[in-house]
Known about the structure:
Elements: E1 2-16, E2 19-28, E3 33-38, E4 44-48, H1 52-61, E5 65-66, E6 69-70, E7 73-83, E8 86-95, H2 101-109, E9 113-115, H3 121-128, E10 137-144, E11 151-159, E12 171-178, E13 193-200, E14 203-208, E15 219-221, H4 225-239, E16 243-246, H5 253-263, E17 278-280, E18 286-288, E19 293-296, H6 297-304, H7 316-324, H8 336-342, H9 348-379, H10 383-386, H11 391-405, H12 416-423, E20 432-433, E21 438-448, H13 451-458, H14 491-512, H15 516-536, H16 546-569, E22 573-578, E23 581-585, H17 591-604, E24 611-622, E25 636-639, E26 645-648, H18 659-673, H19 678-693, E27 704-707, H20 720-730, E28 740-745, H21 752-755, E29 756-758, H22 767-785, H23 790-798
Parallel strand pairs: 3-11, 12-16, 14-15, 16-19
Antiparallel strand pairs: 1-2, 1-10, 2-3, 4-8, 4-9, 5-6, 7-8, 10-11, 12-13, 13-14, 17-18, 20-22, 21-23, 21-24, 22-23, 24-25, 25-26, 27-28, 28-29
Helix pairs in contact: 7-9, 9-15, 11-15, 13-14, 13-16, 14-15, 18-19, 18-22, 19-22, 19-23
The chain binds a DNA duplex (11 and 13 nucleotides) through α2, β12 and α6.
Amino acid sequence: MVKIQIYPTDISYKLVKDRPVVLLYGKTTDGKRICVQDKNFEPYLMVVVKDPESAQKNIKNSNIMDDERKIPITKIEIVKRKYLNQDLRLLKVHTKNPKDISKIKSELREEYSVFEYDLKFTRRYLVDREIVPFVLTDVEGELLNKKSRVSVLDAQSIEQNSTEVLDNINVLAVDIETYNPRGKNVDAEKDPIVMVALYGKDFRKVIVTKKFQTDLDYIEFAEDEAELLTKLKDHINDFKPDCITGYYSDEFDLPYIETRASKNNVKLDIGLDYSPIIVRKGRRTSARMMGIVHLDIYQFIRKAFRTTLDTPRYSLGDVAKELIGAEKDEVDLGKLAKVYNESPEDLEIYCKYNLRDTELTFKLAHELMPNLIELIKAIGLTLYDVSRMGFSQLVEWYLIRRSKDFNELVPNRPSRDELKKRRNQTYKGAFVYKPSPGLYENIVISDFRSLYPSIITTHNISPDTLNCDCCEGKNKVPGLDYWFCENKKGFISTLISELITRRQRINEIIKDKKSKILFARQYAIKTIANAMYGYLGFYISRWYCLECAKSITSYGRYYIQMLIDDAKEQNFKILYGDTDSIFLALEDKTRQDAQKFIESVNHKLPEHMELESEGFYPRGIFVSAKMGSYGAKKKYALLSEKGDIKITGLETIRRNISPIAKRTQLRVLELILKDNDTKKALHYVKKVVDDLRKDKVDIKDLVIHTQLQKELSEYQSIGPHVAVARILKKKGFDVGPGTVIQYVISEDGDKIRDRAKPVEDCKNYDENYYINNQVIPAVDKIFEVIGYSKENLLASLDQKKLDKFF
DNA sequence: GCGCGCCGGGG
DNA sequence: GTGTACGGCGCGC
Length: 806
């Protein structure tokens, strides 16, 4: 018997004689990779029965068949569970093979209500055994002599008695470049991999299938693609990563590598049991390897981290810039195929580019690892799973894991019919107090701290406390015919209380000493707590409860309305309010008055609710309500005390707007907010307009960028960027989907698309287009707010001397 | 205003 | 894989 300690990193299972063997891959305390196998966990499902004893006999004697084979029922236990507000007696029906559960479910569903039949076996294992990946685990068992890249230990017992976490996970980033003569469309069936880069701690490597002169020591040459793949495999095996990471590697790099390996008859057996990369094709493709976690960092960023990011695009370049402040190398990938064929001596920059991408990917994985680990610790699933989950799934698995502590039965996923019904339900959302357009001074912003989570706790909102018998008709939700129990705490409201308390404690500690890990921990908790409201109203949820979701927004409207009423009563001018925040203009009041007001509201709020002071802004502008079809919501710019301008909802970031229009908008906001000088702002616009008229504007300030979305031939309507792309194509440029077309609007022609020209061809730009379609629309709504209609603005721009106008 | 269909990321 | 299940936006009606 051997006693060891491991940090589990991944889990899988295999079938041996129709029985599952759970494989827990991990790392020992002395840094070796290991596989621990557990044969002692049986799949099961739950059956609701009226008379457990007779049903037990009935099910035991029933013949559930899969074709000719009788599905064995190995054990039936009688258990109790809570479900909504009932106490149920259930049968826990066990079998041997996890794959038979689905069949048993179908049979038993004819007669009984069946539950917990669709929880992935390995996830069920982690939840039931209370094993949290990455946490130190005590294992006792026998070492086996098995064909495997790592030691295999057959476990007698597996237990976690510690909270210590693996902190030196060995990550290897991978990225391929492919031969691609056609531009955007990449085809793994046709086009070979020409280079692959690897990046890990103290390790960098680029393998390329063409020889050329270079001094770079990380470049390695391969005779052909088959050799490249073999070398790739050897490097991975030598490096012994716990985790392989890539950017969009679920849907690109790993499936591509796998396809090319089979085309070349290369056995890419990098799994720790010598299995190949397993590609699962579905609505979304994913890739995994036995014993090595595949982390597609793109998935995590897009699904569970996007709310933290400002960038609307999730390309490696944009994300790396925002998160780690690093940029991609700039190369023309469209020329790679040509260079590869005709001038391989120029391949070096592509190798550098390839390595740089893996470096960025590696650093992103490193940067986000604390967040991932804290989510793993909260939710209790593997890095592989957690990094691919969206908010609703994270919440759901948090609830599934915690349901064990509360003896709650896990609700089923909705049926097809149920889904349809749920999808058609809509309900009233948050309250918005529409702003009056205008320029305002001395703005105080105040918001409720974690409004929805605090409502859930305060009002005990939970599917199992809804409309209880004991509190019938008492304490109804404002405007609704629902109530929530006042006598016993609900499952979800209890969990939210716990999360809020835990987060508060962590934040108290962070106040004194900053810690990246603690910050990630409170962030993980916040993520789960904030997602709970959305989860309750999300049609796919197991714990779906429309009444709960409606009640939460109703209480939300109630509290913000109360806040607005109180502010009015105290004679504050209310500028704007949305969901959980209000903007007040101080006018003749002081900041202390506002603070006092906030305190007075806090005084009457329930215990777990709090109104906070978000900030003070010397000046701010709210733009016209008629901007687009989306209304006036969230269109404003604020000047902070430090002098920064914070823009929300104004269209400065759109790509198909010229630099001159963008810059004019920002400068106008600065002059109005910072200098409080509308005259100067108007002068500035006049100067820009005059410069445009006098041809004094640099052409690069006029360039509009638009990305082609499809093949040129597929465009039905010919926009300016498509027209320019056609010209470029005639000139022999390689344009296809993904190419960013840069163009300038010239004077020669009628329609805009005829006037659009490639930058280098444009001699005489169309001043009227830039004035009327770019600069003026970027600022007219701002001027409207301070009393200039568009006509007014245009008229004043035509005057020789503006001063007359004032 | 609504429903359908496609893109996203990657080369 | 104890198999499902995206979401946002643009376009056409």
